[in-house]
Amino acid sequence: MNLLERELHYPLGDLLPAPGTTHEVLPGVRWIRMALPFALDHINLWLLRDTIDGVEGWTVVDCCIAHDASRKQWEDIFATQLEGLPILRVIVTHMHPDHIGLASWICARWNAPLWISSTDYHVARSLTSPGASDSLAGGDGAADFFAAHGMTDREAIAKIRGRSNYYANMVPEVPDSFVRMLDGDTVRIGGRDWQCISGYGHAPEHIALYCDELHALIGGDMMLPRISTNVSVHSGEPDANPLRLFLDSIERFLTLPEDTLCLPSHGKPFTGVHRRVGQLQEHHRDRLAEMLAACTERPHTAAEAMPIMFKRPLDFHQVTFAMGETVAHLHLLRFAGQLRRTVDAQGVYRFGAP
Residue 182 and residue 297: Cα distance in Å, rounded? Predict the structure, then answer.
């Protein structure tokens, strides 16, 4: 456990639910953990006891990517963990593949509605439409975007250009209809009120859920204990300022009680949300200061600046995320007037002193 983690508290210790099982973390709230085939090797999903229109059953929160291993784990859960009751509703915190990938499959299997923010539903719908351009992680748009920010590795650019179905491979479809979740809405789950808290920067319109009766926050990817949430600029919105949105969003968690139990999408349940907000603010403040110092000394492309932020070796999958996050930090400084962006004759952007 590193120094930052020691400032948080993990009430369940090292407990992890075994594949295909659940663990009750609070009354009516069960924890599911599924493997992912990435460096970020798992996701936490949640199963909440519920009653809708007089029918008893369960609400699922987040679904994992669409692959055989996660379907098998869900089949085991359906067979052994539901107490003979149906899935009544599927809530998705946001549109990233590890959260929405199997939503359509679960919704269809149980004739259950999908609940999600409108923005994230329509982005997912767009990315899974026939002929859609995958602006998040692959295709011509992403390849050109990374090249414009200084990526010169021809093999990497070719891989990105050829990865046009990256999203759709993990999210083959989304349901034809949905129930919209909005900031400030109250969702009644199992006789308890859960408040919707919107967050921006990581996803278009991420929805976290807070239950005051339980002092519990289903934080999705907005509040993780061990890693800082990826906040990236993508080719579909190349002049975005997502880091500013993210830092503004996480301040909202400071209004929650000190003893709130955070149920994150990655890592273990923890208390210390206020301190975690502070840690994330400090982390990004330090990275921004390093970036500003380097770019003030001489202009940098995002590819040149990336090692300033990410000092460990990165695999190809991680590099695409790291590039997007580096651009996000440069953009915050640019929009704050602390850096100036220029473009050379080859169309490559550099960030330097104003």
Answer: 44
